[in-house]
Specification:
This protein is an alpha/beta fold. The chain folds into 5 domains: 3-102 and 193-281, 3-Layer(aba) Sandwich (Rossmann fold), CATH 3.40.50; 112-184, Arc Repressor Mutant, subunit A, CATH 1.10.10; 318-381 and 557-653, P-loop containing nucleotide triphosphate hydrolases (Rossmann fold), CATH 3.40.50; 384-524, PCRA, domain 4; 660-732, Roll (SH3 type barrels). Helix content is 48%, strand content 15%. It has 32 helices and 24 strands. Strands 11-12-10-13-14-9-17 form a 7-stranded parallel beta sheet. A hairpin with a 2-residue loop joins strand 23 (727-728) and strand 24. The radius of gyration is 29 Å and the shape is flat.
Length: 733
C-alpha cells in the first residue's frame, strides 16, 4: 500500500495523528471518531513510511475481539501476515512474555492459568483450612479482594492490615493463596500482569532488551487501564519511549472494576513531550444527538476537553417519554419498536439500554407480550439469573417441600454447613426409599443418620422451610417473597459479594419482590383451572413459562437489550435509554460522591453516543422498587440537555400513534361493543377507580390497560374484569 492510499480515507485530525513524527502522543478519540482506523493506519505509516519493522511494534487492546479486528485490518491493509506481531490484549501479551521467560519469572515451564471458577475453588479450600466460616467470609469476596490488590500492583507482603478485622482476614487468605499458587505453579488472570511487571523490575537486562525491541507501543481504550497495566506500559516505554495512547476520558465508566481515569490525565505529565491530538469529527450520530451529548458531558469537571461534531444533518430531535409507571414505559418502547419494524427497520438495528440489570424484567415482559424477538447482550434473562433461581427455589419449597431440584439447589445456599457428602447421603436414602429428599432428610434427622454437625444444619434448613410454608398461607405474595429472601439470608449473602455484581444481585432480588407485587394471575392465565391456582403457585408457574421462552437465537433478527456498561463500543440506528430517573441514572449510590456522579454522567454520555439516528430517553413517574411503589424525579441528566434538542412525547398522542389506523379502528369498534372507550373512568371491585389507557386483542382475548388511582397500571382481561363505568353528575364519563 502506498502513502496516498494510507492517507486518502482520513480526515485532517486523523491524518495528523497517523503522520506525526516518532515520539509519544495522546490521541483523545471521541465516540464514533474512527480510533481503530487511526491505530491501524498509524501502524501502516510506521512500516511503509518510517521504515519501522513490524516486529518492533506492540499494539495493546482490552478484548480479544478488538485484537482480532485490529490484526485483520492490518493484514488487509499491508497484505502481509501479522502472526509474529505483538498485537493482543494486556493479558494475552503478558502471557506470551511469561511463557518466553518462565524461568526468570520463577514459574514452571508448563505453568497453568486458572480461570475464575478454578481460582474460586482454590480460595474456598484455603479458607476452610484457615477455619473461616463461609457464611461470614464469602470466598467470592476474598477472590475480589485478591484480584483488586493485584490490579493495584500489591502483593500480600506490601499490605499492612493493621487492626481492621476485614483487612486482617483478607490478608491471611491472600498470603495463603499466594503460597498455594507458588507450590502448584499456577497463575490467575490478574497474576499475569503483576508477574510480568515484576519481571521488568527484577531483571533490568530483560527490560532493556524489550525496550530496544519495541520501538513503538500503541494502546487502545487507554482510559480503562488500571494501576498495574499503566505501570507495565510506562516501564516498557521508558522516559523516551514512543507510546501512542488512544482513549477518551469522557468514556471512562469502569472505575468500579479498577480502571483509573487518572492514568489518561497523568500521561502527559509522565511523558512530557507527548503531543495531544483530538479526534472530534463523529461519523456515527446526528448533529442533534452530538450537541445534546456535548452539553451533558460538559458538566463534568477536570475534562481534557473536546467537542464532537459531524458533517451530517441535524436529524430528528431526541424524544422524551414519561410513563406513569415502568409497565407503561416498557409498553411504549415495545410499541415504538413495532412502528420501526413496520417502517422497514431490522430488529438488530434497535437497542434498549438500562442502568441496572433488574430493569430488564418489565422490558422483557413487554417484548414477549408483543412477540418481539430479543436478546440480552452479554447477560441472562431475568428469571434465569442465579440469585432469582435461588429465591424461587425457596418459594417453591414453601409451596411443595417434595420439590427435589429446588431442595438440592438451596439446601446450602447460603452456606449453612450442609456439604456435598451430606446431600449425597440424603439423595441415596431418598432413592432407596422411593421418597422425596425432603422426606428422606426428615427421616435421617429423626433416625440420627447424619453427623451431629450435619444434623444441626439440616434441622435448621427444615425449620426454615416449614416456617415459610406456614407463612405462604398468611402473607400476600410480595410480602412472602420479601420474607423468604430475608429469612433465607440471601440479601446478607449477596451483600458480602462486594462491588457492582453484588449490588446488581440485590437489586434483582428486590425486583423479584416488585414482580410479585404487580403480579396479576388474571392477566397471565386464561385457563379457568390455572386461575384457581394459589397466588404463589400461579406466580411460580408464570416464572417457569417466562424462563422457558428462550432468547432469540443468535442468528435470528432480534432487539438487543443490555446494561449501559455493556453498550460501550457498540452502535445502533435506534436506541432507547430507559429508566432516566434520579436513583437509577444517576444511580442512588452516587449521590454523595462527586467522582461516582461524574462517572454516572459519563455512562449516560456513552449510552447517548451509541445512537446513530434516533434516540428515545424514557422514564417512569412511579416505579416499583424494593417491592414498594415509589415516585421519582426525572434524571438530572435530562435537565442538563438543552430543551430545544428534545421533544416530549405526550401520552394522549401515544394512544393515537402507537396503533395503526386499521387496528385503532378495530379497537374502537371492539371497545364500543363492550361499552368502554379510551380515557374512560371505570371502577374495579378489587383495584378501585382508574382510567383506561390502552386496549388490545379481540373477543375472549380482549384486554385493557387501566391506570388505577391506588394500584397503578394493570392489564386486565375484559371478560373477567367486571369493570363498571363511572359517571360525574349523572353523566357517564
Amino acid at each position: 500500500m502506498d502513502v496516498n492510499t494510507i492517507l486518502d480515507s482520513l480526515n485532517d485530525a486523523q491524518r495528523e495523528a497517523v503522520t506525526q513524527p516518532l515520539g509519544s502522543s495522546l490521541i483523545l478519540a471521541g465516540a464514533g471518531t474512527g480510533k481503530t482506523r487511526v491505530l491501524v493506519h498509524r501502524i501502516g505509516w510506521l512500516i511503509q513510511v518510517e521504515g519501522v519493522s513490524p516486529w518492533s511494534i506492540m499494539a495493546v487492546t482490552f478484548t480479544n475481539k478488538a485484537a482480532a479486528e485490529m490484526r485483520g485490518r492490518i493484514e488487509q491493509m499491508l497484505d502481509m501476515p501479522v502472526r509474529g506481531m505483538w498485537v493482543g490484549t494486556f493479558h494475552g501479551l503478558a502471557h506470551r512474555l511469561l511463557r518466553t521467560h518462565w524461568k526468570e519469572a520463577d514459574l514452571p515451564e508448563n505453568f497453568q492459568i486458572l480461570d475464575s471458577d478454578d481460582q474460586l475453588r482454590i480460595i474456598k479450600r484455603l479458607m476452610q483450612a484457615l477455619g473461616l466460616d463461609e457464611t461470614r467470609w464469602p470466598p467470592r469476596q476474598a477472590q475480589q479482594y485478591i484480584n483488586s490488590k493485584k490490579g493495584e500492583g500489591l502483593r500480600s507482603s506490601h499490605i499492612e492490615p493493621g487492626y481492621d478485622l476485614f483487612e486482617k482476614t483478607m490478608y491471611s487468605v491472600y498470603a495463603a493463596y499466594e503460597e498455594n499458587s507458588r507450590l502448584l505453579g499456577v497463575v490467575d488472570f490478574a497474576e499475569l500482569l503483576l508477574r510480568s511487571h515484576e519481571l521488568w523490575l527484577k531483571h533490568p537486562e530483560l527490560l532493556a532488551h524489550y525496550r530496544e525491541r519495541f520501538q513503538q507501543i500503541m494502546v487502545d481504550e487507554f482510559q480503562d487501564t488500571n494501576a498495574v497495566q499503566y505501570a507495565w506500559l510506562r516501564m516498557l516505554a521508558g522516559d523516551k519511549g514512543n507510546l501512542m495512547a488512544v482513549g477518551d476520558d469522557d468514556q471512562s465508566i469502569y472505575g468500579w472494576r479498577g480502571a483509573r481515569i487518572e492514568n489518561i490525565r497523568q500521561l502527559t505529565c509522565d511523558f512530557a513531550s507527548a503531543k495531544t491530538i483530538r479526534l472530534e469529527q463523529n461519523y456515527r450520530s446526528t448533529s442533534t444527538i452530538l450537541k445534546a451529548s456535548n452539553t451533558l458531558i460538559a458538566n463534568n469537571p477536570d475534562r481534557l476537553g473536546k467537542e464532537l461534531w459531524t458533517e451530517g444533518n441535524d436529524g430528528e430531535r431526541i424524544r422524551v417519554y414519561a410513563g406513569f409507571n415502568e409497565v407503561d414505559e416498557s409498553r411504549f418502547i415495545a410499541a415504538r419498536i413495532q412502528d420501526a419494524v413496520n417502517g422497514g427497520m431490522a430488529l438488530s438495528d434497535i437497542a434498549i439500554f438500562y442502568r441496572s440489570n433488574a430493569q430488564s424484567r418489565v422490558l422483557e415482559e413487554s417484548m414477549l407480550r408483543s412477540s418481539i424477538p430479543y436478546r440480552i447482550y452479554g447477560g441472562q434473562r431475568f428469571f434465569e439469573r442465579a440469585e432469582i433461581k435461588n429465591a424461587l427455589a425457596y418459594l417453591r419449597l414453601a409451596s411443595n417441600q417434595d420439590d427435589n431440584p429446588s431442595l438440592e439447589r438451596v439446601i446450602n445456599v447460603p452456606a449453612r454447613g450442609v456439604g456435598e457428602k451430606t446431600v449425597q447421603q440424603i439423595r441415596d436414602v431418598a432413592r432407596s426409599g422411593g421418597v422425596s429428599m425432603w422426606r428422606a432428610a426428615r427421616e435421617m434427622v429423626k433416625g440420627k443418620g447424619l453427623t451431629a454437625r450435619a444434623t444441626n444444619a439440616v434441622v435448621s434448613f427444615i425449620e426454615l422451610i416449614e416456617g415459610l410454608s406456614l407463612s405462604s398461607s398468611d402473607l400476600p405474595l410480595d410480602e412472602l417473597a420479601d420474607h423468604a429472601i430475608n429469612v433465607a439470608g440471601l440479601i446478607e449473602h449477596y451483600q458480602k459479594e462486594k462491588g457492582e455484581k453484588g449490588h446488581a444481585r440485590i437489586e434483582n432480588l428486590e425486583e423479584l419482590v416488585s414482580a410479585c407485587k404487580q403480579f396479576d394471575p388474571d392477566a397471565v392465565f386464561y385457563d379457568k383451572m390455572q386461575q384457581n391456582l394459589s397466588p404463589l403457585d400461579a406466580f411460580l408457574a408464570h416464572a417457569v413459562l417466562e424462563s422457558g421462552d428462550a432468547q432469540a437465537d443468535q442468528f435470528i433478527d432480534s432487539v438487543q437489550m443490555m446494561t449501559l456498561h455493556s453498550a460501550k463500543g457498540l452502535e445502533f440506528p435506534l436506541v432507547f435509554m430507559s429508566g432516566m430517573e434520579d436513583g437509577l441514572l444517576p444511580h442512588r449510590m452516587s449521590f454523595n460522591d462527586s467522582g461516582k456522579l461524574d462517572e454516572e454522567r459519563r455512562l449516560c454520555y456513552v449510552g447517548m453516543t451509541r445512537a446513530m439516528k434516533n434516540l428515545y430517553l424514557t422514564y417512569a413517574e412511579s416505579r416499583y422498587l424494593h417491592g414498594k411503589e415509589t415516585r421519582h424525579h426525572s434524571s438530572r441528566f435530562l435537565r442538563e440537555i438543552p430543551s430545544d434538542l428534545m421533544e416530549e412525547v405526550r401520552l394522549s398522542a401515544t394512544i393515537n400513534t402507537e396503533m395503526s389506523n386499521a387496528s385503532l379502528s378495530l379497537g374502537h369498534a371492539e371497545m364500543a361493543e363492550i361499552g368502554l372507550s379510551l380515557g374512560q373512568r371505570v371502577t374495579h371491585e378489587v383495584f378501585g377507580d382508574g382510567t383506561i389507557l390502552n386496549f388490545e386483542g379481540q373477543g375472549a382475548q380482549a384486554r385493557v390497560l387501566i391506570n388505577f388511582d391506588d394500584e397503578g397500571g394493570k392489564w386486565l382481561m375484559v371478560i373477567y374484569a367486571k369493570l363498571t363505568p363511572l359517571s360525574v353528575n349523572g353523566i357517564c364519563c
